[in-house]
Amino acid sequence: VFGGDGTVREVVKGMGDDPLPVGIIPFGTVNVLALDLGISFNPVIATATILEGHKKKIDVGYLNDEPFLLMVSTGLDALAVHNVDLSTKRYFGQIAYVISAIWSALTDRAGKIKITMEDQNIQDRGYLVIISNSRFYGGRYKIAEEIRIDDGLLNVILFKKSSITDTFRLLLGVVTNRHRYMRDIAFYKGREIQVTSRTKVKVQMDGDKAPPTPIRVWVKKHHLPVIVPRNQQSQEGLEAVKTLLAHVFSPGAWT
Questions:
Q1: Among 75, 78, 86, 83, which Cα is nearest to 100's?
Q2: Cα within 13 Å of Cα(171), Cβ side
Q3: What b-and-e string marks burial along 37-63, b requiring 16 or more CB atoms within 10 Å of the CB?
Q4: Beta-carbon neighbour count of residue 27 at 10 Å?
Q5: Closest by CA position to 154, among listed 135, 134, 133, 130
Q6: Residue 109 CA: distances (Å) to CA of 71, 91, 103, 163, 211
Q7: Are strands 55-63 and 215-227 parallel, antiparallel or unpaired?
Q8: Which structural domains are found in the chain, ordered by start?
Q9: How many C-beta atoms lie closer than 10 Å to residue 189's C-beta?
Q10: What pTM was computed for the model?
Q11: pLDDT tens figures, 227-251
């Protein structure tokens, strides 16, 4: 798959319940999945990784019946995704989401939501919820170091304040990796989460628009085989390049 997170998700969706191994050559606006899996952003090294063929099975999340690989959220970032201008996104890339988030914070208000995790008898309320399958959020920012994309669990981060000041405090906390110490944030783990609200609240999934609340979010453990580097060391990347070049220039490679 040559593309960003949205492209990979569409391929996974198209394969249905019995997916083939996926090789990723990162390209596009956002490539958080490749970052999480240690796949090089250099297309030559990424191609060499695919040729090497080392596989890892990762979890796939579902919003109702739609697959996602990274996260689902409501709140400011969902508003930003819904309000982002496509021409701005093409021109500015990821910065377009920051611009849209600032505009959304000034002009919109996130609706209050309720999360329910029946298997753990948990109910809680807030204004922004991130249900994450990946430790990365919005690029290279880490939601939580301990999150694993292959542990069969979804990680829930619930922010309980809604003012502009509090929202930007949260975003600053994520950027500086200090959100874990904020008293008005709750952290949960689970296999199935229900998100409801009195009025429909906007939702985003892997950086794209998604159906509004109410939603059911759940996970399939080890559902998708992905071709990844054997390790994430630079020396391995160099060896992968050598493998690719040897393959390309070997006798009979082009016959």
A1: 83
A2: 17
A3: bbbbeeeebbbbbbebeeebebbbbbb
A4: 15
A5: 133
A6: 21, 27, 11, 8, 18
A7: antiparallel
A8: 60-221 (2.60.200.40)
A9: 16
A10: 0.80
A11: 999 875 444 555 555 566 656 656 5
